[in-house]
């Protein structure tokens, strides 16, 4: 065994899985290597809110025992069995705390597992722990966590994106090869873009939402966070599929995503450049990397066309009405009656109304309150049609724009985020500026289409993300296009994640 | 509550009706008897340990999602059809948002602008047989809330120190039936109110979609009342009396609210739009919560659920499963059985129509079925303090008992004993008769001997009979019965006596 | 601008059951006014003939059979309760009428 733990954690999940299958490494070694890495660097990153070393090692030991015993059970192990994974702390887990990044759920232990967790346990992936996020997934920087911000491994003075900054940073910093995120308006893809990792928002309904603490039910989707496109496809296949507990989950066979991620031929693939998702508001460095990617794809035989999606100009407005409306309702259940924090006001009569008011005042952070109040406003009597109703119509228009664009193109392309990672604190007092981070990722959520962010090089030494979008149910196309770009960009450069600054020095 | 104290006294009902025309409206909630909840697979069951008929969905835990119970939807469609409603081609669930500790998610999943059934009617039969048509606005699906117990203080909500919540009932499927404003009821308004709720109860029971026990809250009624100045044609402000949960209470609540409104209006006051609480002890209502702008439920389509789309085939399949409407069935049975109005009313009041129908279907005559159910079975039930239907007497048992009587093998008195033994678990009537040797003594030897003995011991009676006073035979039957331990057939005794004396019977 | 007043926020906070201080109400009113001003571009962007979309996929009729599944024990139900008594969740007095 010549592979040192240090190089072990820099492999892709697919490579780790191959080594496990070949008996070159054990899952306990692999899991321990990641736990060591967490111990080593997470003080600087704060990607993890909870580390479950014991449970992870127990699962790893089980996998190793099954492999050692051989036979049918060993053969039937999932291809990713033994490869550790980190879970965004919005997804509920039995036996490990789930906080949603909020004081409201401090100490809460879910008595049930999310459906994706059930699948991950069945496939025997050691769960390393729960990752940091903006409170209830509301934010684009992970600064709105009640447990302190996560830092970007590329530059620890900068944000890792959000809301899934913890999962993205953990994967970028080699603390985990795989992670789960949730994407309501870009919370998987935008952190992927600014940390130089891969993130997929699957087709709405592709992955069960059961056990993902809801922000905006009609937009939320769980998806993979990885360092390679193939890994994302592998993890997506594992977590996808119909769930009778989620009425909105697709009752269809899961397509072969991983196969698509190795079929990297883009000759003849029509790639549509979305006119509305470039230009003003996008940093020039981001646009340079974006145009380089287009050039590479064109050279590889892809047909680059421009598509016009005029309604995308209203996407941000529609999103910031629909999302807070649904969120204001989804978060009503946090009232200190059945679970979670209960705050008793210090003075005045002790009534349930006052306890609920005090609990929600103390349990929720500022951004959460802002969205609850905004959503309450948008749904309130006399305003529904003007706000929520109008926004739902925009949704129809955006779907129509996508339909028209996919007549002309097989996949669409845009920068994932308008900027590279910005310094911590920069946009904290300007909610509107913070919301603009999601401008390119939001349309996919409103229409339910799948999207992926793949690393597209560096600008000012910081990662830039390239987003591919495909029609509903055609997630395989984003893996094919994404893997193709990944391969093309690695023809004359190391993978982006291999160029990440060494964190040990900064210890 | 001060407001109630300062309110003018209610007018008498007659005075009220002289000046005003009542307008009523009802919201009736029916709890369905599905096996599971509306949106979760936890059991829908009454009376279990608190918080044990729940899972993560019913407790509104973070991350949970609802899935619609198909049976509940089909029950709603059936009820819609039974209420002569149109069934929506497309309908949806919506969230009705308000904070209350018995509501686990702080919203109730209900239907708002797209109910599953709408625009129907129900023909309600009044006591004198008159039919009054009540127009139905809509019937929609929703979920029930948990149960609050107020502790400390008086045990009522006001003054309680704290409350305890049991979520077993949370998520139980409900159908809410909303009427259009009911006008033209006049002085019969209270009677119509009771008849309407009775009719709803009978329908859901006949459909088999609810246990329909009002005392358990399976059927709950909110009664809206307002008054119009006679001839004015403009609706007045209404009050909404909540949870009037017995048929009699519905009638009384409407009666009282008409008088109360009239008292206020006659004194030049105006009605406050508010909810009222029914007080059974005083048969009055008390002021609840006034409608305020805090009642902004912020309805929006439930994003975790998908639309329900019906088609003709589905609806027709369900329509084919509908039972005969209760009112039509009553009319049909009354005619078929030939009971008098009083007899039939008594049967209805005793709740024994189903039993009698089954007994007749098993071969008994309507008269025999009624004799048993309204007579001996009701008497035993009364003595044992249960409902007659709850005794579990099978129609076949009654048919068998009657056959034994008709064949002269037992008499009525023995038959009553056989029934008691049957209810005590001794088996079928003929088995009991055999086991206990209860068969009427009709072999001529033993019976003739007993009769001869009785005649010998009562020469004065024999003399009277011989003189043509046939009624005197009764005095011989007693001793014969005593001799035969009650197993003699009275008719047979009479026959033998007459025979011996050479008299034509 | 400033379409949302402090009083509006106070009403909304009451609906949402979030206790807020004067300072919070003021600050929230200012922030909300800016946000609402920005998002209200959606008004009138779509014609009357455009239907609303509330769900990204046009799925219908997803049902569950009426079969009893797993249920919690009393201990499981109350495992996270801030307060409980006699197998029930315990809450402070309710002022509001039923
Ligand atoms: Mg109602
Ligand atoms: Zn209702």
Secondary structure layout:
The complex is a heterotrimer of chains A (507), B (505) and C (98).
Chain A: H1 5-8, H2 13-22, H3 27-45, E1 48-51, H4 53-69, H5 71-75, E2 85-88, H6 115-122, E3 127-131, H7 165-172, E4 178-182, H8 189-195, E5 198-201, E6 222-226, H9 229-239, H10 257-262, E7 270-274, H11 284-299, E8 303-307, H12 315-330, H13 352-363, H14 366-379, H15 385-408, E9 411-415, H16 431-435, H17 442-447, E10 451-459, E11 462-469, H18 475-489
Parallel strand pairs in A: 2-3, 2-4, 7-8, 7-9
Antiparallel strand pairs in A: 1-3, 4-6, 5-6, 5-10, 9-11, 10-11
Chain B: H1 2-6, H2 13-19, E1 20-31, E2 68-69, H3 70-82, E3 86-87, E4 90-91, E5 94-97, E6 107-110, E7 117-125, E8 131-143, E9 147-151, E10 162-166, E11 173-179, H4 189-207, E12 219-229, E13 239-244, H5 247-266, E14 274-279, E15 284-290, E16 300-301, E17 308-309, H6 312-320, H7 326-337, H8 341-350, H9 353-361, H10 366-384, H11 395-406, H12 412-423, H13 429-436, H14 444-457, H15 459-466, H16 474-483, H17 490-501
Parallel strand pairs in B: 13-14
Antiparallel strand pairs in B: 1-11, 1-12, 3-7, 4-17, 5-6, 5-16, 7-8, 8-11, 9-10, 12-13, 14-15
Chain C: H1 6-15, H2 22-39, E1 63-64, H3 74-77, E2 84-85, E3 88-92
Magnesium ion (MG) is lined by residues 27, 176 of chain B.
Structure description:
The complex is a heterotrimer of chains A (507), B (505) and C (98). Chain A has helices at 5-8, 13-22, 27-45, 53-69, 71-75, 115-122, 165-172, 189-195, 229-239, 257-262, 284-299, 315-330, 352-363, 366-379, 385-408, 431-435, 442-447, 475-489, and strands at 48-51, 85-88, 127-131, 178-182, 198-201, 222-226, 270-274, 303-307, 411-415, 451-459, 462-469. Chain A has 507 residues and is an alpha/beta fold. In chain A, a hairpin with a 2-residue loop joins strand 10 and strand 11 (462-469). In chain A, helix 9 runs antiparallel to helix 18 (475-489) and helix 12 (315-330) packs across helix 15. Chain A is globular, with a radius of gyration of 22 Å. The mean pLDDT of chain A is 96. Chain B is α+β, with helices and mostly antiparallel strands. Chain B has three domains: 13-316, no CATH class; 326-436, no CATH class; 444-500, Arc Repressor Mutant, subunit A, CATH 1.10.10. Chain B is 39% helix and 20% strand. Chain B has 17 helices and 17 strands. In chain B, the strands form four sheets. Chain B has a nine-stranded mixed sheet. A three-stranded antiparallel sheet of chain B has the order 6-5-16, with no helix packed on it. In chain B, strands 4-17 form a two-stranded antiparallel ribbon. In chain B, helix 11 runs antiparallel to helix 12 (412-423). The N and C termini of chain B lie far apart (80 Å). The model of chain B has no long low-confidence stretch (mean pLDDT 91). Chain C is of the alpha+beta class and 98 residues long. Chain C is 33% helix and 9% strand. In chain C, strands 2-3 form a two-stranded antiparallel ribbon. Chain C is flat, with a radius of gyration of 22 Å. The mean pLDDT of chain C is 92. At the B-C interface, strand 2, helix 3, strand 9, strand 10 and strand 17 of B face helix 1, strand 1 and strand 3 of C. The site of magnesium ion has 2 residues of chain B, from loops.
